Amino acid sequence: MVVGVLALQGSFNEHIAVLKRLGVKGVEVRKPEQLLNVSSLIIPGGESTTMAKLAELHNLFPALREFVQMGKPVWGTCAGLIFLANRATGQKTGGQKLIGGLDCTVHRNFFGSQIQSFETELPIPQVVAEEGGPPSFRAVFIRAPAILDVGPDVEVLADIPLSAIETINSNPAIPKEEVYFVLLSI
């Protein structure tokens, strides 16, 4: 098994290092033809607008979309989540290209600026019921996107009510009674 890591910008080195520690071969992906040699793909965190511009420059979007449509495993963290969403809000004027494949709407930088970052214990009852382990995990929200809604085939593994997050309360544009999802499985 060879795991590709999209290496345009962001935390691709960290993902390659973790894969190596796990005994899994990880390779950097920067060109469409490199996707032919990997069985799965990680799209790391970073700056999604910059990543989209670089993906466009290297003509990666058609190959990335085909990779996802073939049903190969793809995991996106932060900017990678934004790339994988079918729909995005909170984008800069004109938006950015998305790969799609994850039936959700994501809001970029939903949790505010860098100084509004926070950590919280996130209950994961469904994961515990199916896999065992501790009842929660420490979730870190750093300029994080939020998933606003999901399609019928997306299974929500954990969510966090906005009322539980004091740092969000300063944004009047966000309805406080909504729940936004942070961990998904399809």
Automatic annotation (TrEMBL):
Q: Which GO terms describe its biological process?
A: pyridoxal phosphate biosynthetic process
Query: Keywords in UniProt for this one?
Result: Glutamine amidotransferase, Hydrolase, Lyase
Q: What class of enzyme is it?
A: hydrolase
Name the InterPro entries on file: Class_I_gatase-like (IPR029062), PdxT/SNO (IPR002161), PdxT/SNO_CS (IPR021196)
Cite the Pfam families for this sequence. Answer: SNO
- So what family is this one in? Belongs to the glutaminase PdxT/SNO family.
Q: What is this protein called?
A: glutaminase
- Organism annotation: Solanum tuberosum (Potato)
Lineage start: Eukaryota, Viridiplantae, Streptophyta, Embryophyta, Tracheophyta
